[in-house]
Specification:
Layout lengths: L3 H30 L1 H9 L7 H7 L5 E10 L2 H5 L5 E22 L4 E12 L12 E5 L1 H9 L5 H13 L5 E5 H6 L1 E2 L1 H9 L8 E2 L1 H5 L7 E4 L16 E4 L47 E4 L6 E12 L2 E8 L29 E2 L9 E4 L8 H5 L1 E2 L5 H4 L2 E5 L4 E14 L16 E11 L5 H57 L8 H17 L7
Parallel strand pairs: 2-15
Antiparallel strand pairs: 1-2, 1-18, 2-3, 3-8, 4-5, 6-7, 8-9, 10-11, 11-12, 12-16, 13-14, 14-17, 16-17, 17-18
Helix pairs in contact: 1-12, 2-12, 6-8, 12-13
Family: Belongs to the CD36 family.
GO molecular function: scavenger receptor activity
Pfam families: CD36 (PF01130)
């Protein structure tokens, strides 16, 4: 009969067995289901309450615009034709940009519509000095730009304009505070000329940053359905579907088709569908994907391509750069054909037309200090020192989450001066591409709240989960083995007691049956083996 002690030992074996089974089952379930991945995908799927949506709606990251002005150091000698244009870089003047995506509407077709709002604040502690106090010599962009814009409009337009410039004593180079140059000043010539040639002059006040942030009420429609083929732009997760109702950019010649017909002028050059605003990228990025980044201030899409992979703070990071040919003329890069339609001749390598987005003034975008541009652009201006380390764009993205970790997007704005013949006061500028300023849009990893969240989701949580799986598996296997060994020992103990009872009644002179043989010879051997593991004391 089983004694009370044996029953307690049996209960212990059963408990150990159950612990082993449950631990092993939980370990397998954690391994098979991968709850960390489920939580990760849930938080990174766009829904009205998800983490990624709340982060996208009002990004908790520091975005700064560092502005560098090109100050003219020899205004008199240059205008007199005695010296080439000499400039020095002044800056940075730093502004923080705060983005909020407003008026969000969720649609049944897997898209959302919204209006981005950007607000800027001066950051004195990061700036060179106060832009109100710093005085610079700079091109009178409205006056020069208007003259360049109407240079081919004939005598009846250009001669009166030149006479008005002389009458109003409108100067081609102004001395003014940096603040006015950045955020707006008026020129009497422009104010009068706006009534004469309104098709060319549709502004009264000019400011370098004022135009960049004069975005208006733009409605963006974005796809939020995940697609399996990330290499295909059409339908890509978190890509733009339409901008102000159009999948293209009309100012670069995009025409809305009335039917499904193909319009020859509608190309990748003026298409915006499939591009991204750059605040958030798809999850699980494929390194072969080329992203086209659009922002109204850019006036066009800017392609970025994968450069390298590295690790920072335990996070996998992809580094991107601008495509090497994104500022090449159409004969070198056919994708840029539409950016040259409004010009008499295409701009030189390293320049892209900016005119439709810059008061209709002939302007062009380039890399800072004409980096990687046609050498003749640098030859026309003294004081430029292109440096790849300082002036090249670098974008670091965490590919699993699709979030920018560290960004330096560097772009320069220039005034393109055509040849004018009716105003000798601006003759020195003829044929020049005049650098106005360059900006560095920076997202720093320092103080980036998203990094802590990403490390929790991508580094800490998987390690904790894997450790828990291993611990549970070890506990499960160990307790299962212990329960098995304990059970065998109890069986051995009971069999031994039975054998002793039988041994007293067995006549050793008679042949042994199988049960008797087992009790007398085999069970003692089992006891010897199991006694090495004293499970219950």
């Amino acid at each position: 009969m089983k004694t009370s002690a044996q029953l307690q030992q049996y209960k212990k074996c059963i408990i150990l067995f159950m612990i082993g089974v449950i631990s092993s089952a939980i370990a397998y379930a954690l391994y098979a289901v991968d709850p960390t991945r489920l939580i990760f995908e849930y938080k990174l799927t766009m829904t009205p309450t998800s983490t990624v949506y709340l982060t996208w709606k009002k990004p908790p990251i520091g975005v700064y615009i560092k502005v560098y002005i090109f100050n003219i150091t020899n205004p008199e000698a240059f205008l007199a034709g005695q010296e080439k244009l000499k400039v020095e870089e002044i800056g940075p003047y730093v502004y923080q940009e705060v983005l909020e995506n407003t008026k969000v509407v969720w649609h049944d077709n897997g898209t959302i519509s919204y209006t981005p709002k950007r607000t800027v604040y001066f950051v004195p502690e990061k700036s060179r000095s106060n832009p109100v106090d710093d005085i610079v010599n700079v091109p009178n962009v409205p006056m020069l730009g208007v003259s360049s814009a109407v240079h081919d409009q004939g005598f009846l337009v250009n001669y009166p304009l030149a006479q008005m410039a002389n009458l109003l004593d409108s100067k081609p180079i102004l001395t003014m505070p940096v603040y006015e140059y950045l955020w707006g000043y008026e020129d009497p010539l422009v104010r009068l000329a706006a009534g004469i040639v309104p098709n060319f002059i549709n502004f009264r006040k000019f400011g370098l940053l004022d135009r960049m942030y004069d975005e208006g009420e733009n409605v963006v429609n974005m796809n939020i359905q995940k697609s399996k083929n990330m290499l295909e732009e059409n339908g890509r997760y978190l890509s733009i579907e339409t901008y102000n109702g159009s999948p293209g950019l009309p100012h670069w010649g995009y025409t809305e088709p009335e039917t499904n017909e193909t319009i020859p002028g509608n190309t990748i050059c003026n298409q915006i569908r499939g591009a991204t605003e750059g605040t958030l990228f798809p999850t699980d990025i494929d390194r072969d994907v080329v992203f086209r980044v659009f922002r109204k201030a850019f006036c066009r899409v800017l392609p970025i391509v994968f450069k390298s992979e590295s690790y920072e703070q335990g996070l996998r990071v992809f580094e991107y750069k601008f495509a090497d040919d994104f500022l090449d003329p159409p004969e070198m890069n056919a994708d840029n054909e539409c950016y040259c339609r409004k010009m008499e001749t295409c701009l030189k390598r390293g320049l892209s037309d900016l005119t439709p987005c810059y008061y209709n003034i002939p302007a062009a975008v380039s890399l800072p200090h004409f980096l990687d541009a046609d050498p003749s652009l640098i030859e026309g201006v003294e004081g430029l020192n292109p440096d790849p380390e300082k002036h090249r764009t670098r974008i670091f993205i965490q590919p699993d989450v699709g979030a920018p970790l560290n960004v330096n997007s560097r772009i320069q704005t220039n005034l393109v001066m055509q040849h004018t013949v009716y105003n000798p006061r601006i003759k020195a500028f003829n044929g020049l591409v005049v650098p106005l300023f360059w900006s560095d849009l920076e997202i720093s990893k320092d103080g980036n709240e998203l990094i802590s969240l990403m490390r929790l989701l991508l580094v800490i949580a998987p390690v904790v989960q894997t450790s828990v799986v291993y611990i549970l598996a070890i506990v499960g296997i160990t307790t299962f083995v212990l329960s098995l060994v304990g059970t065998l020992r109890l069986l051995n103990q009971q069999t031994e007691e039975y054998a002793e009872e039988r041994r007293d009644s067995v006549d050793l002179r008679m042949p042994l049956g199988m049960g008797q043989y087992t009790a007398i010879h085999i069970l003692p051997a089992i006891k010897k083996i199991t006694s090495k593991t004293d499970l219950f004391g």
